């Protein structure tokens, strides 16, 4: 079977809204490598959008899933629960940052986790408003879309959205938005559009994902924590893309030493098996009434088994340290590219193995080079790579290698990327 014929079959039965980045149909994958149905090999710098932090088909995770499937696959956590869900909740509440007593819930997708975090915050505060940030991404369900700070393609054609959702600028020095300006915008919001006493929650990605891999400055997260404490607002850290070792710590917000009230978790939590969670302070988590939270597939026993093994793999294979090593390797190699092409590469940035390359014209942050970004993504498979773009303007290449990838594979992939970008800049 060939990729193009499979693409034709897919296009004939899938709604166009659920497209795919590449006409590359996967036959198998192992750690940081993927093979398509034609036998072509690719180095995976996307990992299913930061899902397979522990690599594709990690043997320990595969074995844990097999053992669980042989026992049972589903009973519904809200009907007949099971021990591995309890154990996973115990471990997640233990590793969540901060000294407060924690509780957890399990759902299935990142967007569900976000929706439930807002429900919990509103139940606890008895307030209506939620504040998010320009460029943020929180999911594709109705509330999550409303929170997302970018129209195309996520919100286009899909309104109306829930009310009482507000956005303020996210601090990005490279784009002229300082911490002080962002905080001032937030305070102005409380004067102009909604009183702080009516705000249930502020939700923030400690590193913006779709927004361009911009880490929130430590002083900004500290200031948000202080503001939320002062005004009785629930601080929600959306760690869906940043969690489980991706940034060199288990959770990105640990870099700032801040304890959020609630955290959303998904993606890297279970090595590719669908599960998500909200973990937070006990008194806040217990605000909804019995039956107010849940979902038929939430906390799948198969995904719980995988997630428990992911936690063991992260610990046993020192993947937090490895994440920082990978980030340094990428930064060094991509930094050399920036020195060669200073008018094209505005910035190379990373937090652990969450790495970005921002492309512009004439070294100007106000002139995003979307065309080059799109060309690099489109032609990456010809150079044996799987890449993703992101950014408010769509001009950022994001690198999300497995934390289990070897130096040899990473160096091979970076050499391929060097050839790719050099070819297109000279064309």
Q: What would you note in describing this structure?
A:
The chain is α/β, with parallel strands linked by helices and 427 residues long. It folds into 2 domains: 3-57 and 318-426, Aspartate Aminotransferase, domain 1 (Alpha-Beta Complex), CATH 3.90.1150; 72-316, Aspartate Aminotransferase, domain 2, CATH 3.40.640.10. Helix content is 38%, strand content 18%. The strands form 3 sheets. It has a 7-stranded mixed beta sheet with strand order 4-10-9-8-7-5-6, sandwiched between helices. Strands 11, 12, 13, 15 and 16 form a 5-stranded antiparallel beta sheet that branches. A 4-stranded mixed beta sheet has the order 1-2-3-14. Strand 1 (26-30) and strand 2 form a beta hairpin. Helix 3 runs antiparallel to helix 10 and helix 4 (83-95) crosses helix 10. It is globular, with a radius of gyration of 21 Å.
Sheet with most strands: 7 strands, mixed
CATH architecture label name of the largest domain: 3-Layer(aba) Sandwich
Q: CATH fold name of the largest domain, please?
A: Aspartate Aminotransferase, domain 2
Query: How many beta-strand segments?
Result: 16
Compact description:
This protein has 427 residues and is of the alpha/beta class. The chain has helices spanning 3-13, 47-50, 59-71, 83-95, 110-125, 142-147, 179-192, 218-231, 282-285, 301-316, 319-340, 370-379, 407-426; strands spanning 26-30, 33-36, 41-44, 102-107, 129-133, 165-168, 199-204, 234-238, 262-265, 276-281, 345-351, 354-361, 364-368, 385-386, 388-390, 396-399.
